[in-house]
TrEMBL record:
One cellular component term from this protein's GO annotations in UniProt: cytosol
Keyword Transport annotated: no
This protein's UniProt keywords: Oxidoreductase
Record protein name field: Aldo/keto reductase
Domain of life: Bacteria
GO molecular function: oxidoreductase activity
SUPFAM superfamilies associated with the record: NAD(P)-linked oxidoreductase
Pfam family, one: Aldo_ket_red
Length: 371
């Protein structure tokens, strides 16, 4: 893979001035789609309507510590900064197979190496899920799922300690807690903002009406409210187009899609299954269930001369509400490959073909099902 424009500053992450305004195009000839590219790769854009600039790919760290060894995790994070990726996402619960919080600890030890690493990163983590630690005694707030003010404070303190940082840039609710009053939840987050421990608040796995409620409740308290929503979104699962994306657009939230490759289904699943590079009963069932669509999809990608994973990520980047899909590389090579998606633009013909292969819910509600 070609990385254009040299290595950006590990502090600013921006590419040289002469590369910033170039664009990529694609066109369809009589017999095939032809991709055209230029020298720009990672770009920095505002998180929704808000002032902070983040890279248009977000480094997901969920694999760190149980699928990816610590040493390789360090190399991935260093390489991300070299590429201009300044947006890192984690969660207090990551590291499941070993121990909750392990991934945050790995990131913390990487920050501790210094050389401007912490200042170069817009750091996002999450709260909601149980975080059980070997050194802790059982406790229902930590061991349960909720967004109580107590849990928000307690888990923030734990994340700060593990991450070896004084602040979290984006503190996200990992899921909605409809049993906890918004008075309490927003008070919990506001207290952390006033203490300088968090900067922005985001959501994850919220329904459209949850986003609206959260934003309205924050507005009543003269708070900034949500700045982002992290949802599952990919070619084969477009349900968020009904109400979540319209809610994000209306309230100015940046959308951060997770699982952009559908757990590998959109990453060349047919070839991987045939060659034995990817196994597993559930994966095989998913491939067989969606085989007709995957055959059309991978044939289109072959015609484009691009890897299926590249096309899947590039498709997400065409949505103006999307700020940054989350990529979860297990190796530096996978990280390098992911950046290719930022170097191409899919033509209207390609986008139409993808819609035909993977039809969404029919547009936004209520027009998708009424009038």
């Amino acid at each position: 893979m070609r990385i254009f424009g040299g290595s950006p500053s590990p502090i600013t992450g921006f590419f040289p001035e002469e590369l910033r305004d170039r664009r990529f195009f694609s066109k369809k000839t009589e017999n095939a789609f032809v991709m055209q590219e230029n020298d720009m790769a990672i770009e920095h854009k505002r998180l929704g309507k808000h002032g902070v600039f983040v890279s248009n790919l977000c480094l997901g760290t969920m694999n760190f510590g149980w699928h990816t060894p610590e040493e390789e995790s360090f190399r991935i994070m260093d390489r991300a900064l070299e590429l201009g990726i300044n947006f890192f996402d984690t969660a207090d619960v990551y590291g499941w197979a070993v121990e909750h919080g392990l991934t945050e600890e790995i990131i913390g030890r990487w920050f501790a190496q210094g050389n401007g690493r912490r200042d170069a990163v817009v750091l996002a983590t999450k709260v909601y899920n149980p975080v059980t630690r070997k050194v802790n005694k059982p406790e229902p707030n930590s061991d349960g799922r909720n967004l109580s003010a107590m849990k928000i404070k307690k888990h923030c303190e734990g994340s700060l300690k593990r991450l070896q940082t004084e602040w979290i840039d984006l503190y996200q609710m990992h899921h909605i807690d409809r049993d906890c009053p918004w008075d309490e939840t927003w008070q919990g987050f506001d207290s952390l903002v006033k203490q300088g421990k968090i900067v922005y608040v985001g959501s994850s796995n919220f329904a459209g009406w949850d986003i609206a409620t959260a934003c309205q409740e924050a507005s009543k308290r003269n708070l900034m409210g949500l700045v982002s929503e992290q949802s599952i979104y990919h070619l084969n699962n477009r349900m968020v187009e009904l109400e979540v994306i319209p809610a994000c657009r209306h309230y100015g939230l940046g959308l951060i899609p997770w699982s952009p490759l559908a757990g590998g289904l959109l990453g060349g699943a047919l070839k991987k299954l045939e060659t034995g590079r990817r196994k597993g009963e559930q994966f095989e069932k998913d491939v067989q269930k969606h085989r007709p669509k995957l055959e059309q999809y991978e044939a289109l990608c072959k015609e484009l001369g691009e890897a299926p994973a590249t096309v899947a990520l590039a498709w997400l980047l065409h949505n103006p509400v999307v700020t940054a899909p989350i990529i979860g590389p297990r190796t530096v090579e996978q990280l390098n490959d992911a950046v290719r998606a930022t170097e191409i633009t899919l033509s209207a013909d390609v986008l139409k073909t993808l819609d035909e292969i993977f039809p969404g819910p029919g547009g936004e509600a209520p027009m998708a099902y009424a009038w």
